[in-house]
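Contributing new complexes? Match this layout with adenosine-5'-triphosphate.
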Amino acid sequence: MQRLILMRLFYGVITLVIVSMIVFILSRLTGDPAALMLPLDATEEARINMTHVLGLDKPLYEQYWIFLSSAVRGDLGKSIRFREQVGTLYMQRLPNTLKLAGAAVFFVLIVSIPLGCFTALKKDSFADYGSRGFVSVGLAMPSFWFGLVLMQVFAVWLRWVDAAGMSTPKHYILPAVTLGLGMAAGMTRILRSGMIDVLDSEFIKMLRIKGLPERKVTFRHALRNAFIPPLTILGQYTAIILGGAVVVEVIFTWPGVGRLSYEAIMSRDFPVIQAVVLINGAILLFANLLVDILYAYIDPRIRSSV
Amino acid sequence: MSEVVSEINTLRSATRSSGQIALEIKDLKTYLYTRWGVVKAVDGVSLSLRDGECLGLVGESGCGKTMFGLSLMRLLPRPAGRIVGGEVLFNGEDIVKKSEAEMREIRGRQISMVLQDPMTALDPIFSVGRQLTETITISSDLKGPALLERAVELLRMVRIPAPAERLAAFPFQMSGGMRQRVVGAIALAQEPRILIADEPTTSLDVTTQANYLRLLKSLQERLNLTLIFITHDFGIVARVCHRVGVMYAGKLVELGDVEDIFDNPRHPYTKCLIDSVPKLDKRVTRLATITGQPPTLHDLPPGCSFRPRCTEAGTHCRPDQYPDPAMVGDRHYVRCWLYQ
Ligand SMILES: Nc1ncnc2c1ncn2[C@@H]1O[C@H](COP(=O)(O)OP(=O)(O)OP(=O)(O)O)[C@@H](O)[C@H]1O
Ligand SMILES: [Mg+2]
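Output block (do not edit by hand):
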């Protein structure tokens, strides 16, 4: 187990270094940061001066080394737009994204687990057909459109919730549902087919033979077995949301990481974009590691094979 | 191997079928409603079992043996399987009419079953100990050390070495033979009166098979179990069972004491099955095989379903009707036109 974690961390660091290189090179390709930071009518001399101040006249490998070593120390540079440390900026936004992600994952779980289980138990019933409809629609619906529809209906017409802001728990409902819909649909589908497979297996029959109550057969045994495959997907989805649900955060003016990246891209704020990409990479890797640990926790076969 | 066989043989004669009636099955019909038609998996089977008796149920693949066993547990594949007729009397009550909640009281505690494939009959993500204790607590209030002690005792009963250490093991860490023993321990954990063993040895190697049979046999005697032993191997039946029923296409075509059936098989199908048993004393014998395929169990014509493959078929075989059971000896009946 410890070996698995160490191995994963090792590979994770290598992956992050590669990601940082790509980010570094790409951001050099998009243009001269010095030109962006200066007024349009700046002199050539001022530009050279600025280039020197920013260290852009140094060889590329040296620039990369400076970038990497300060990134490791937590210094990701200064935002061009906000004139503030990128790290500080990011940390201001992260809690908001975390809260939204938590709400969305909660929504996903409370929808997909009961729906996946129930429809697997009542295969080919009306509820099953209904749920399959929900799954298709949920997977097909683009979130920008769904979010706008929800906003129109529940905020504008019915006035049940406010369209923007995050001051009360009620504000979480629309963005979390928008964000979670596709995920909930996907999870429901995978859980349903997983449950159907597991419920058909011999060991479930054996549990019934020994007279175990159906509730325990379903939840203690079938669900735990069926939950192994969707776990990966849940982990990835969560990581993606944590990286910033750009569309949803923009629609609902949610001051999270996604909105930060949107703003950074719109104003060509390269240090921020670089930092967000790097941190998202790290989050994704960490989420995958977490899923692996959870896997090993649920499935003894994996625990012993590593 | 042959030592084992002779030991089993002596074991077999040790108990005789003289107890109370444990289970009485009358004209049981189990149909499967599939997309391709109605499969008459069990079609009018009648028999009764006494306490401590071992009945062998033999027949080719697909003749409905497993469906017969599952019918007694009322655990037919859903939604296709249904018991459409007949009675299964247990303690004077008809199991067929019981509610699902009442059945749960019977399953495991009164009637239990060991499934065909030991490799998949255990939950892969629960330890053996957990699966055992879970079973024990279904019908008892044992807790803590006493519960664990009972689990160890069960593992010891199925002769698993170092049982206390084995509690923490997971199914994938055990061999097929071990797993089958664990499944046996689980099936017997609540001390049922009747055990249905559905081909419990098919996936095991010969030595493991013999060991398992010996174990099953000794447990049957110690616990005075009524055993329904499902197999397609007449050889095993001869070694373990008191009585044997021969199934063909959902029907019980011959039923009698093992000695009677072996010495004097009446149904042409039974004769074929007995001829196909490898003789242990004569090393090299060609196995006789039955020509033709067993029929698929839907849309069967009304007459005897073995007729197309039967070597003794003739004008006496009426095509419009299935032959009724005819007594051909003491507790020995056969369904064949030859004896009508
Ligand atoms: N889940 C199912 N749905 C539909 N038909 C089934 C199902 N399971 C079994 N059958 C059919 O029921 C009939 C009886 O099957 P059963 O499993 O009882 O045979 P068996 O005698 O146990 O065979 P084997 O020796 O291969 O285990 C077969 O014709 C089979 O095709
Ligand atoms: Mg079978």
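Reviewers usually confirm one structural detail per submission. For this one: The CA atoms of residues 240 and 248 of chain B lie 21 Å apart.
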